């Protein structure tokens, strides 16, 4: 029921493959398995964001943040099994991998672990060559006032 054929979109557009891939990824994403750990995404500036992941029970050594091919991977794995006997265990410390797809030119500018939260700062850095630039419009008349023939 959730399967959509995006083939007509590929035939009718040029250069929009990333948008089609994004739509395909969103439509086929299994929401139920992506609930742990909880996270927030906040906009901190015009071209800046912060992802905050709740990682209670993990130390900095047990966390990993990597960027591969426009995707941000946050992983965690406990170093050793806890030998304690719990009467109630409500703080989940199971291993996880959380993936965030990054748009072009979005770079990770830093990460910090404090008070059970992992904060990852992102910034968009558009290269000078891709920024908008104004093009001068030339006049169709010569300097002496005669028209230029095409």
Topology summary:
Layout: H1 7-12, H2 17-28, E1 39-45, E2 48-54, E3 63-68, E4 71-76, E5 96-101, E6 106-114, E7 117-124
Antiparallel strand pairs: 1-2, 2-7, 3-4, 4-5, 6-7
Can you walk through the features of this model?
This protein is mainly β and 150 residues long. It folds into two domains: 1-35, no CATH class; 37-127, Immunoglobulin-like. It is built from two helices and seven strands. The strands form two sheets. A four-stranded antiparallel β-sheet has the order 1-2-7-6, with no helix packed on it.
Summarize the helix and strand pattern as letters.
Answer: HHEEEEEEE
Strand content: 25-35%
Q: Strand order of the main beta sheet, please?
A: 1-2-7-6
Structure class: mainly beta
CATH architecture annotation of the largest domain: Sandwich
What's the total helix number? 2
Oligomer: single chain
């Amino acid at each position: 029921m959730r399967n959509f054929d995006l083939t007509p979109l590929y035939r009718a557009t040029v250069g929009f493959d990333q948008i089609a891939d994004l739509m395909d990824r969103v439509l086929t994403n299994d929401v139920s398995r992506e609930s742990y750990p909880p996270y927030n995404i906040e906009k901190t500036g015009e071209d800046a964001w912060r992802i905050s992941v709740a990682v209670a029970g993990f130390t900095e050594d047990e966390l990993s943040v990597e960027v591969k091919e426009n995707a941000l991977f946050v992983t965690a794995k406990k170093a050793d099994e806890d030998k304690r006997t719990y009467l109630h265990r409500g703080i989940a410390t199971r291993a996880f991998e959380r993936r965030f797809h990054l748009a072009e030119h979005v770079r990770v500018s830093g990460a910090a672990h404090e008070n059970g939260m992992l904060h990852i700062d992102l910034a968009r850095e558009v290269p000078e060559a891709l920024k908008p630039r104004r093009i001068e419009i030339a006049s169709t008349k010569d300097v002496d006032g005669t028209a230029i023939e095409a």
